[in-house]
Amino acid sequence: MHQALRRIGALRFAIIYIILASVVGVLLDWRVFHVDPEAYFEKRQFLDEALLISITTVALFLLLRTLISEQRLEQAEHRETQLAYEQLFRAHTHPMWLIDKGTREILDVNDAAVSRYGWSREEFLGMKADDLQYPQKLGETDAHFRSFLDNSPSHQAAKRHRDRSGNPFWVEITTHQVNFNNKAMLLVTGVDISVQVEAARSARKALKHLEDAEKLGRFGAWEWHPGSSYMNISRGLARLLHVPYDRAKIPIQVAIDRVMPEDRKISKAAVEQCLQTGAAEATFRGKLPNGEIRYYREIFHRQAYNGQEYVLTGSIIDETDQLSYTHQLEQQQADLKTLLTNLPAPVVLHQPGPNGHLVMANPAFYCMLGIPAGEEQSISTLEDVGAGTEHRQLLKELIDNTAPQSATSRKQEVLLRRRNGSVFRVHIHCTRVSLADRNLIQLVIHDIDDEILLREQLRQANSNLSKLNSKTLKVLEQERALISRELHDDIGQLLIAVKTNTRSLFRKWPSKEPKPGEVELISDILEELVDKVRDRSLMLRPPQLDELGLKHAISWELRRVLGSSDIDSHFKDRVSVEKLPAEPSLTAFRIFQEAMTNAVRHANPEQINVTLETDNNHLLIRIEDDGKGFDLDENQNGLGLANMRERANLVAGTLRVQSEPGAGTRIEASLPLTGTHSVSH
Question: DSSP 3-state helix, strand, coil percentages of the chain (rounded to 5)?
Fold first, then answer.
C-alpha cells in the first residue's frame, strides 16, 4: 500500500478513492430503489449521509496519513542526500566549486580548492569564477567561461588558472549543470594537469630539437620490420633522400633506389650482419633525383619487437660536407707544414703539459742550433736546448703558462745552447694554436745576439751624432757671432763710410752742373744696403741677448718681425731668476725664432702669445698662435720642428707641439737651467 502511494502520489490516491466510493454509493442507491422503492426514499437520506461521512472520514484519514508519511520520508531522504553531497563535495581530492550560472559567482568551494589555490573559503565566496583564470590576452577569460554556458549537460576543457600568488598552472575543467534548491548551477571540478602539460610541451620541444638536429646535422632515422615492403622514416631522412614527407612511411624500394648500384651490396651485407649480430655499420654513396652524388654513413641496430619478432632501426648521416672539410683540413695541414719548412725564421710546435714534447720544428730551428740533418730526434723538448737550469725553467713556464685561446701572446728572452756548446740569446714569441683538434704551442724564435750588437752600435752612433750636432751648433753659433760682428763692425762700417763719402761728394757737386740720376739711386741703394746688413747682423746674433738677456731679446725680436704687420702680440715675462744661464737662453731664443718665423710664414695668425717662465730647475718658453694650424701626423718630420727638437735634445730638454687644422698651434719647450751641455755663444 505504501509503495503504491509513493508511486501514484497521495493526492491522486485520495481522488481515486472518492470516485470509487461515489460509484459504490450510486450502485447501492440503485439497488435499494429497484428492490423497495417505498423504502428507498425513507432510507436514502440516512444512507447518503452515513456513506458520505464514512467516505470523507476514510479519505481524509488516508490522505493525511499518506501526506505526513511522504513528507517525513522526503525530508529524511533530503537530509541523507544533502549529507552525502556535502561529504562527497568536501572530501573530494580535486578542487570543486558550485558556481552561479548567471552571475559566475562562487557559491561554495571544497577544501582541495582552498589548499591548491591559496584563497580561504570566505575569500572564495566573494569571488567570481573569472578570477581564477590566468589572463594572457584580452577577452580570453570570457571565451573560457562562455563555453560553460551552452546547453550541454557537461563540459570538459584544459585551461590555465592562477593561484593566490599569481602563479599560473594548467587544470582540466569538468562542468556539470545541476539544479540545487530550484536554482541552476554549475558544478565545476578542476584537475591539476601542469605536469602532463609540461611533459607534453617538453616532448614537443624535444621533437622540435630532434628535427632541428637532423636538419643541422644532416642525419635521419628509419625503422623497418623484416618482411615488410615499407619503412618508417623521420622528417630528417626524408630531407636527405629528397622524398616527400606527406607520410611517415615510404616503400623500401624508394630508399634502395637512392643507393648507387655498385654500393647496394654493401648495404645488403650490413643488414644481414645486423640481423645476426645486432649491430652493423656501412658507408655508401647515394644519388639524388637531381643527379648529385652524396656520401652517407649508416648505423644499424636490431631490437626486439612484441617479444618474438625483430625490428631494424638505423640512422643515416650525410658525411659529404664533413669529408670535404676533412680533405681541406688535410690539405691545409700539408700547406702549413710546407710553409713552416720554408720559413727562414725558426718555428717550433710544442705539446704543453706534463707530457709535453716537441711536435714539429722547421729546418731553420735545427740550423740555428747547429744540429745536422738526420739527428733532429736528439731534441725531444725545447727545454733540452736551454742554457742552464734557470733558462730551462723559463722555457717550461713559457710553454705551460700560455693561456688557452689567449688574445695576446707571451714573449720571453732566454739563453739557448748550440750543439757546439756556445750560448746565444734569443727572443721567443709564444702563442697557443689549435691544429686538427690539438692544442699546441707555437714558438717563433729570433736570434737577437746580432741585434743586440747592432743596437749597441746604433746607440753609440746616436751618441756620436749627438756630440757632433752639439759641436756643429757650437761652431754654427760661433760662426754666426763672427759673421754678425764682421757684418756690423767691418762691412757695416765700410758701407757707412761709402754712404758718408757719397753724400759729401753730392754736397760738393757744382751747383751749376746738373746731378746725374744715378747719384740719387746710388744713395738709396747704399741706405737700403746698410739697413739690410744691420738686420742680418742682428738676426745672426742679436746683441740684446748677450747684453740685456733673453726677455729683452724676445721683446726686440717681436717688434722687429711684427712691427709692420697686422699681427697682434703679447709677451708675458714670469722669470723668477735674476740672471738666466747663457746656454738655455740661447736655445730658448732660437726655438722662439723658429716658431715665430713658421707662424708668420705659414699660419696667417691674428695674434701670437709668448710666455717665458722659470721654476727652480727649468726654463719654460711657450709660443701660441691662433692661425690655421696643421696636421701633426703629416708634418711630424718637418725641418722646422726637427730643428727645434734637436736644439731641445742637445740641452737635455723637451719639446711639445700641439696643433690641429683650424685650431692654431702651441709650442712649449722645457729646458733645464743646470747640468746641460755647453753651447758656446
Answer: 50, 25, 25
